[in-house]
Design goal:
The structure is a single chain. A hairpin with an 8-residue loop joins strand 1 and strand 2. Helix content is 6%, strand content 62%. It is mainly beta. The relative contact order is 0.22. The chain has one domain: Porin. The protein contains 1 helix and 9 strands.
Length: 220
């Protein structure tokens, strides 16, 4: 939790830097969807789920062709899968993991065509879990969402922190007065195991993200 607070404080500090240092800093917001699943030997019949992804970001220019972008976003990941332990072992269900993502990305200019541009986005992403629940379905009628801490679910050891590498492309349109309209497609490759328990050992998050948004310069 302390690490999360420090990252948010750094994000706020960069956003509020006085001119002229902040003259070309851009603030923005974006939102879209996660097409998420789980990867690993312990995963059984894992299918993609669709979840929300939205947040804010700040971009600081290092050079004409390169910027550093720090963001904070709510993202939902997980998968449709078969539970292998607990009271509901063998039942199909939807695992939903909610995170606050803090990506720190290099924003590299690939092409500029006047009003249009293409950017490469790449860097680490630090994720702090804020929710975890499982909804079972199949036999009889669906069961309401159960928290992962419920003993019947058997997912009490899900880690609070996840680390991954994020990369993709961003398309920009200059709408005037420094405002950019954005469309991004990125892939989040989780590197951390979700848990040390037998259920989720050697299981990682995977997600393809599609988002739209806008950014605008701050400062004089």
């Amino acid at each position: 939790m302390r690490s999360f607070v420090r990252v948010i404080a750094l994000f706020a500090l960069v956003s509020l830097l006085p001119a002229p240092l902040a003259a070309q800093i851009e603030l923005g917001f974006r939102g879209g969807i996660n097409l998420a699943t789980l990867n690993g030997d312990a995963v059984q019949n894992s299918d993609v789920i669709v979840g929300p992804d939205f947040g804010v970001f700040a971009t600081y220019p290092v050079a004409d062709w390169l910027g550093i972008q720090v963001g904070a976003a709510y993202a939902q990941r997980g998968a449709d899968q078969t539970l292998s332990t607990g009271l509901f072992a063998g039942r199909d269900g939807t695992l939903k993991l909610s995170y606050i993502d803090v990506p720190v990305l290099a924003r590299l200019r690939l092409w500029d065509g006047g009003l249009y541009g293409v950017r490469l986005l790449a860097g680490p992403s630090f994720s702090f879990r804020v929710g975890c629940d499982m909804k079972f379905h199949g036999r009889d009628r669906p069961i309401s969402n159960l928290d992962c801490e419920d003993p019947g679910v058997g997912l009490t050891d899900v880690r609070d922190f996840d680390f991954g590498i994020l990369g993709g492309l961003g398309f920009e349109y200059q709408a005037g007065r420094g405002v950019r309209l954005l469309l991004e497609g990125t892939y989040d490759f989780g590197l951390s195991d979700l848990s040390d328990s037998a259920v989720l050992a050697d299981v990682q998050n995977r997600a393809f993200q599609v988002r739209a948004g806008l950014s605008f310069p701050i400062g004089s």
